[in-house]
Amino acid sequence: MEQAIIQVYTGPGKGKTTAATGLIIRALGQGCKVLLVRFLKPEQPQSSELLILEKLAGLDIITAGLGGIDARKQPERLQQNVSQTLSQVRPMIIGGFYDLVVLDEFNPVLHKGYLPLEQGLELLRQRPAHTELVLTGRNAPAEVLELAELVTVMEAQRHPFADGLAARAGIEY
Q1: What distance in Å separates the CA atoms of residue 126 and residue 118, rounded to the nearest whole number?
Q2: Hey, is 22 helix, strand or coil?
Q3: What pLDDT digit, counting tens, does each position of 112-137 carry?
Q4: SS3 60
Q5: Burial label, 34 (beta-carbon count in 10 A; 0-12, 13-18, 19+)
Q6: Is the model's pLDDT at 72 over the cut of 80?
Q7: Distance CA 65, CA 15 (A)
Q8: HSE of 79 in the Cβ direction (CA atoms, 13 Å)?
Q9: Strand 132-136 and strand 100-104: pairing?
Q10: What is the mean pLDDT of the chain?
Q11: Rounded distance, CA 169 to CA 173, Å?
């Protein structure tokens, strides 16, 4: 990619991972090599989009495998899981093998302190110039927003969860 940038999808509204998934599809359609790294998301239940994405050539997916409501009660385990996942993917990211890298739920990883902010910022600064980098998740730190060339804030105006509608397969996951 000639002019790659850092994109951030953040905010309390729905659609951050969905927007990144759309970008993945678009990049793959242009023959780009893509890496999706999923932080703070468990292996099971599997998100429905993975059923399709895993079949696509040109896309590598790494899932940290620890996340969800129960995992939040174990911050030390989450911190260790994030650190191990980052150790695995860091050489893949800075090695320049990908046109697009999506770090799903990376913003809350930094916000909650599961990864030291400076370590996350160092990764952003070390990304190859030709690699588009997308960070998703609520509460993107101000320092991340400052480094990004594109920032989209998702804001919920209304959400059926407030009325008791549970997450639905194929829609929310």
Answers
A1: 12
A2: helix
A3: 999 999 999 999 999 999 999 999 99
A4: strand
A5: buried
A6: no
A7: 21
A8: 12
A9: parallel
A10: 93
A11: 5
Q: What are phi and psi of 144, to 5 degrees?
A: -70, -45
Rounded distance, CA 6 to CA 149, Å? 6
The H helix count followed by the E strand count for the chain is 6, 6
**CATH code 3.40.50.300 for 6-163:** yes
Q: How far apart are alpha carbons 105 and 29 in whole angstroms?
A: 24
Please state, in angstroms and rounded to a whole number, the distance separating the CA atoms of residues 146 and 134.
14
Residue 9: strand, helix, or coil: strand
Q: How large is the average pLDDT for residues 10-36?
A: 97
Compute the distance between CA of residue 78 and CA of residue 92 in angstroms, rounded to an integer. 21
Which candidate, 131, 137, 135, places its Cα nearest to that of 150? 135
- Among 154, 160, 163, 155, residue whose Cα is nearest residue 172: 160
CA atoms within 13 A on the CB side of 171: 7
* Strands 132-136, 59-65: pairing kind: unpaired
Binned at pLDDT 50, 70 and 90, residue 29 comes out as very high
